[in-house]
């Protein structure tokens, strides 16, 4: 049986015209209006692309640097060896180590949001694939989480850099701030996400690339965003 909607959700759904593609700023103001939970809800984007990720030339996995940040603290773990471990500590990583950290993670320790590894440790990190893969935490060069430049990577992820990928059905699910952000800051982050997805269009993507963009707060209804209007906006950097 389908789950019965709460009265709160029914009331919120009445505020959203399901047949309308909203102008980006209008959609984000509506997202804020429908974020009525007792905590600061996350702003989420759900973007359907015209790709079939079962083909290697139609996959997307990359990072975006949100200009207004994520609105949340990020715990970074680093797997390295020798002086690089101390470098990770000094750069602000909460968790750092070598083989012993790999063993802890294999036993179930997951007290981090981002895992960075130096290239020389990847052969050993590879055995964590079964543990980290399903959670999207496996370090990868494309995701910027396999690097020898630990200070730059750590500071970037703490400042608002996010890794994302399309799921099996070609949909990108990514958070882009908090409902407490003003609508203009949310728009700057959403625009950065859109531009990143356009820059990283897979070579095998044919036909219409953008199919739909919906935004919502973590406990709120989905709001359809006018894709053309979003792509036509000028970014802060261009301005």
Explain what the structure shows.
With 239 residues, the chain is an alpha/beta fold. The chain has 2 domains: 7-70 and 161-232, 2-Layer Sandwich (Ribulose 1,5 Bisphosphate Carboxylase/Oxygenase), CATH 3.30.190; 76-159, Rossmann fold, CATH 3.40.50.790. It has helices at 7-13, 24-33, 83-90, 99-106, 122-125, 129-132, 150-159, 183-199, 227-232; strands at 42-49, 61-65, 76-79, 95-97, 114-117, 161-165, 171-178, 210-217, 223-224. The chain has a 4-stranded antiparallel β-sheet, covered by helices on one side. The chain has a 3-stranded parallel β-sheet with strand order 4-3-5, sandwiched between helices. The protein has a two-stranded antiparallel ribbon with strand order 2-6. Helix 3 links the parallel strand 3 and strand 4. The longest helix is centred in the last third of the chain and has 17 residues, at 183-199. The relative contact order is 0.26.
């Amino acid at each position: 049986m389908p789950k019965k909607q709460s009265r709160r959700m029914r009331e919120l759904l009445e505020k959203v015209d399901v047949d309308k593609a909203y102008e980006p700023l209008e959609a984000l103001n509506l997202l804020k209006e429908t974020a009525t939970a007792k905590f600061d809800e996350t702003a989420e984007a759900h973007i359907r692309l015209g790709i079939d990720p079962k083909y290697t030339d139609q996959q997307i996995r990359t990072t975006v640097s949100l200009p207004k940040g994520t609105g949340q603290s990020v715990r970074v773990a680093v797997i390295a060896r020798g002086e690089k471990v101390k470098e990770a500590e000094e750069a602000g990583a909460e968790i750092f180590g070598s083989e012993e950290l790999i063993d802890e993670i294999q036993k179930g320790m997951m007290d981090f949001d981002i895992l960075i590894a130096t290239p020389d440790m990847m052969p050993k990190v590879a055995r964590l694939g079964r543990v980290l893969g399903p959670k999207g935490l496996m370090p990868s060069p494309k995701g910027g989480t396999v690097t020898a430049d630990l200070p730059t990577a750590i500071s970037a992820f703490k400042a608002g850099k996010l890794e994302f990928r399309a799921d099996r059905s070609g949909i990108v699910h990514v958070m882009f701030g908090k409902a407490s952000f003003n609508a203009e800051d949310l728009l700057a982050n959403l625009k950065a996400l859109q531009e990143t997805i356009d820059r990283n269009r897979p070579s095998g993507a044919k036909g219409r690339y953008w199919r739909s963009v919906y935004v919502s707060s973590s406990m709120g209804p989905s709001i359809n965003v006018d894709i053309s209007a979003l792509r036509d906006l000028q970014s802060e950097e261009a301005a």
